[in-house]
Amino acid sequence: MDLHALNAEFGIPGTLSLVEGPGGLTLIEIANPLATARLATHGGQVLAYRPRSAREDLLFVGERAHFAPDREIKGGVPLCWPWFGRDPAEPERVIHGFARVLEWTPVQCEACADGSTRVRMRVTDDARTRAIWPHAFVLEVEIRIGATLSVALTTRNPGDSALRITQGLHAYFRIGGLARLTVEGLDGCRYLDYAAGAPEPEAVQEGDLIFRGEVNRIYERVPSSLSIQDPGLGRRIRIDGRNSGTCVVWNPWIASARAMEDLDDGDYLRFICVETVNAASEVIEIPPGDAFTLAADYRIQEF
Ligand SMILES: O=P(O)(O)OC[C@H]1O[C@H](O)[C@H](O)[C@@H](O)[C@@H]1O
User: Fold this and answer.
1) Fewer beta carbons below 10 Å: N end or C end of the chain?
2) What is the ipTM of this complex?
């Protein structure tokens, strides 16, 4: 669909428009009384979100992020689906599934009575996805741009056998440095530590999480509410997850950031990922005709 037709169907004058972005990708630009945001139909991904009162964007997108039809965009809130990390069924496959390189179709853009804006995008199975993952599916993301950013990813199973998925809202949060930054809410949670490559035996988090080297962990049985305390940007980010018992915290530190061609060497000081996921042993089984929603609300509290 061309941009003119998309705007005629989904545009909201003065609030929402579809524009051509880098690499020819389609972006959805939103400016309402509560916040501004940018979404990509590529990957169904939020790229930017800033409440009107906030000094800085919630999210990080690197200068070297790829904007191309066949590449994932590193930053914002990539949607990892239908597997998170390594595919448990076929570990040699690309990590984090294929949803983040699909072109999502807008199905609804709505100005809500409270001043927020709601966008729904969808992908369904086709010959290309069935060649990788032989299942019928309807996958929908609902993104709400208000005083809070809400992202809800719903998997529907229209097929006649159960779907088994792992998945994640792989949020890249913009930060003001790591020296004084903490993640709160994980005290006492067991975690798998992937920083050394293969997961180390389970360990237990003691106190708030601090960053003094690469962190790549899957925490289990996490509380629904976590927060990032970021004195560098003078703010706290509150993350309220739904239907997620696992959480990934990732910062590549120096060597892994250098090894990634879509990160700048210094980017490790500019973001951390705190990801609302169903991962590791938290495999979601969706019976035929059923649906499952993984969701998170993100809120900035400045101090
Ligand atoms: O580079 P990506 O495919 O976006 O993945 C980035 C990172 O995502 C997760 O947080 C994983 O735990 C990491 O192992 C991975 O390196």
Assistant:
1) C
2) 0.97
